[in-house]
Design goal:
The complex is a heterodimer of chains A (418) and B (256).
Chain A: H1 2-17, E1 25-37, E2 51-65, E3 71-82, E4 87-101, E5 104-111, H2 131-136, E6 147-155, E7 160-166, E8 191-195, E9 205-214, E10 217-227, E11 232-235, E12 243-247, E13 250-262, E14 265-276, E15 291-303, E16 306-317, H3 320-326, E17 338-349, E18 354-363, E19 368-378, E20 383-394, E21 409-417
Parallel strand pairs in A: 8-12
Antiparallel strand pairs in A: 1-2, 1-21, 2-3, 3-4, 4-5, 5-6, 6-7, 7-9, 9-10, 10-13, 11-12, 13-14, 14-15, 15-16, 16-17, 17-18, 18-19, 19-20, 20-21
Chain B: H1 16-28, E1 33-43, E2 49-60, E3 67-75, E4 83-88, E5 95-100, E6 105-108, H2 125-129, E7 136-146, E8 149-158, E9 168-174, E10 180-186, E11 192-204, E12 207-217, E13 223-233, H3 244-248
Antiparallel strand pairs in B: 1-2, 1-13, 2-3, 3-4, 4-5, 5-6, 7-8, 8-9, 9-10, 10-11, 11-12, 12-13
């Protein structure tokens, strides 16, 4: 009903305002997006589906700008039918007002923010991601989830800055237990209480990026005070929990990144320190340890319209020994290091209307992996078709990709964009 | 005073290098800066057509031939609002950045192949922003008319053939306005692979400008027709137009 009402309201507003719509731009798309588990594993829950996605989506973008270009608004909203959950949904992806004055760019409202240099690996990009979308085969633009708040850009000759204030916390969107096979560390728990930060003024998240270009090399410094977007879980008792509390521990992140030309290609280096504010001693095994993170990447066009990119990433906890000593018996023990190697190959053909892509991520200590081959074809300027697969694997059922082994899927979408 | 022993040239005669250098200055460096609306029609042999529409800003930034390009994509819908920034350095690789609005993400593009197609058209990056004249050996072949214009015909052969998709190029350069009116790219078999024609030349603010041009692939029949509209020169563009800030917030003053 919500969807119908929203659509009706949108149409009404369009009809009312259309005569005045001097330069209000309207764009968007209609899309069918489907994804199915292909491992033959069928979840035993009632109403369980082998489809991870079965959705029809309509996106509407409306924007306007003052004639001098100094102020404007932008709204991007999705209306979709979720055939797996059997619901109609509305999601406001962006709704913001922007203002430029001299050295200042202000954007207030719901918006997507991306920082950092990694390809599907993040250190200083402290903004929410949607892994549910990524792993089930939605278009890549859905990897980033929006945040509400304000972003102020300040540009000077010497150094530029972006300052972000987020009043309401948004967690990462993780694969949903209603769709995916997931590892459950507390199988006996029947109740789950989720506590999100954001109730107090002091919970306001602050993020800042200082950056400067030296020639064509971008050097950025970052700082963030807020909360982990990955949940921690605290059971009421460890041996036979009935209730599990899900919460988002407070963290600070400090880091830097450098991107520039290296050996006929583009290289990037990024590092950071994540300060786990509620577990500095590392003795609480249910909350992430403070940790150092670093990654290095390189991409190069190897042949005409064929690009390869590689990355190496490592995380080193500060107090792994304390974590290991305090881990309750029976819990799977995380490896000391978390380390990934990735490869992306991209080839475009037929006047760049066909794009063949492979992405692979291998976790060196967990010995599990994700592979994502995809073919994307622009049938016309308006219509595009994608066909791809997310392949998960690994020896253990509690690691990131290993736990998704049964969820290896094939996906497709067909989109008409206007 | 130096004594010149070389045989005096006929008046107005130029070396092939000079012709190509002057041609590049007229074709790609006119004015201190330029703003134009570019429409590209990508037409397949069977007549199927795709459209690329963009606003292009170009500024000359150094005596050595450095230039900065800013491109805002107006069409098609899937690239609308994308922006592209290139800093061209002669003798060095061009720096390129792309802004993807749906992810609000600026990425430096790894693109070492200057012969790669620009936005899926028959024009390569090099065809758009120019190829350093020092990379080729130039020889004057003949004088010939292209249409009703007197032209020098210059043969340019890459000194280093690695990564090149043609073995040499013939250019018909207008003797008076210095614009290329016709180009033929020859492949290994000796036949013409690609052909460029300047289909319309206009004087805009004192600068002769190719306002309509075509690049045709003679091997597969695909062609790209480009038109420039609302072209203006010497707009006093500030350097800040060609930065990350501008990629993320294209200035409404320049972008329509």
């Amino acid at each position: 009903m919500k969807l119908i009402q929203s659509l009706a309201l949108s149409l009404f507003m369009l009809l009312v305002f259309a005569p005045f719509a001097h330069a209000v731009d309207m764009h968007g798309f209609a899309q069918g997006n489907y994804s199915a588990r292909i491992t033959g594993d069928q979840p035993v829950r009632t109403g369980a589906s082998n489809y991870l996605l079965s959705e029809e989506r309509f996106q509407l973008e409306i924007e306007d700008r003052t004639k001098d270009g100094l102020a404007g608004f932008f709204i991007k909203s999705d209306f979709f039918r979720d055939g797996v959950a059997n619901t109609n949904e509305v999601e406001v992806r962006e709704a913001n007002v922007s203002l430029t004055k001299g050295a200042f760019d202000l954007k207030v409202g719901r918006q997507i923010i991306t920082w950092g240099t990694g390809d599907l690996l993040f250190i200083n990009d402290v903004f929410p991601k949607d892994y549910n979308a990524l792993y089930s085969g939605r278009p890549i633009e859905y990897l980033k989830a929006p945040v509400g708040g304000g972003k102020l850009g300040i540009t000077t000759e010497a150094v530029s800055a972006e300052i972000v204030i987020i009043p309401a916390f948004e967690a990462n969107r993780l694969p949903e237990p209603s769709r995916f096979y997931l590892f459950n560390p507390f199988p006996t728990a029947t109740a789950n209480i989720t506590e999100k930060p954001g109730g107090k003024l002091s919970d306001t998240e602050l993020a800042a990026r200082l950056f400067r270009y030296f020639g064509s090399t971008d050097v950025s410094l970052y700082a963030y005070r807020g909360f982990s977007r990955m949940p921690a879980m605290m059971p009421d008792n460890l041996s036979n929990p009935a209730t599990v509390n899900t919460f988002y521990p407070p963290i600070n992140v400090y880091g830097f990144s450098v991107t520039g030309n290296v050996l006929d290609g583009v290289g990037n280096l990024e590092a950071g320190y994540e300060d786990s504010r509620s577990n500095r001693s590392g003795t609480n095994p249910l909350i992430e340890n403070s940790r150092w993170k670093a990654m290095v990447g390189y991409k190069k066009e190897l042949a005409s319209e064929f690009t390869a990119g590689v990355q190496y990433y490592i995380e080193v906890p500060v107090n792994h020994d304390n974590y290991a000593r305090n881990l309750p018996p029976g819990f799977p023990k995380a490896a000391r290091y978390t380390s990934y190697a990735t490869l992306r190959l991209t080839k475009t053909l037929w006047y760049q209307t066909l794009r063949l892509q492979f992405f692979g991520m291998y976790s060196i200590y967990d010995k599990d992996y994700l592979m994502n081959p995809e073919a994307y074809y622009k049938i016309t300027d308006e219509v595009s078709l994608a066909l791809g697969s997310n392949i998960f694997g690994g020896g253990k059922n509690y690691t990131n990709f290993g736990s998704l082994k049964k969820d290896t899927n094939m996906y497709t979408y067909l989109r008409y964009q206007f | 005073m130096a004594v010149n022993f070389s045989i005096p040239r006929a008046q107005g005669a130029e070396s092939a290098e000079d012709v190509m250098k002057k041609s590049q200055r007229a074709f790609l460096y006119a004015g201190s800066d330029m703003k134009t609306r570019v429409t590209m029609r990508l037409i397949a042999k069977d007549g199927r057509e795709r459209i690329r529409e963009m606003t292009m800003l170009r500024k000359n930034t150094g005596e050595a031939g450095d230039q900065k390009y800013f491109i805002y994509f107006n069409q098609p819908a899937d690239v609308r609002n994308m922006t592209f920034l290139a800093w061209k350095h002669p003798k060095k690789e061009t720096d390129r950045w792309l802004f993807i609005p749906a992810l609000n993400m600026v990425r430096k593009v790894a693109a070492s192949d200057t012969r790669s197609s620009f936005v899926g058209s028959d024009f390569s990056y090099e065809d758009i922003s120019g190829r350093d004249t020092d990379y080729d050996t130039h020889t004057l072949v003949k004088d010939e008319k292209a249409g009703d214009r007197d032209c020098y015909v210059v043969k340019s052969a890459p000194k280093d053939e690695r990564g090149m998709d043609y073995t040499y190029k013939l250019s018909w350069i207008d003797r008076e306005r210095w614009l290329p009116l016709k180009e033929e790219y020859y492949g290994r078999t000796g036949s013409i692979q690609k052909a460029f024609t300047a289909d319309e030349v206009k004087n805009i603010g004192g600068y002769w400008t190719v306002t309509r041009r075509t690049m045709k692939n003679l091997e597969n029949g695909h062609r790209t027709e480009v038109s420039y509209e609302k072209t203006e020169y010497n707009k006093n563009m500030e350097d800040s137009l060609f930065t990350e800030r501008s990629l993320k917030n294209p200035s409404g003053k320049w972008i329509e």
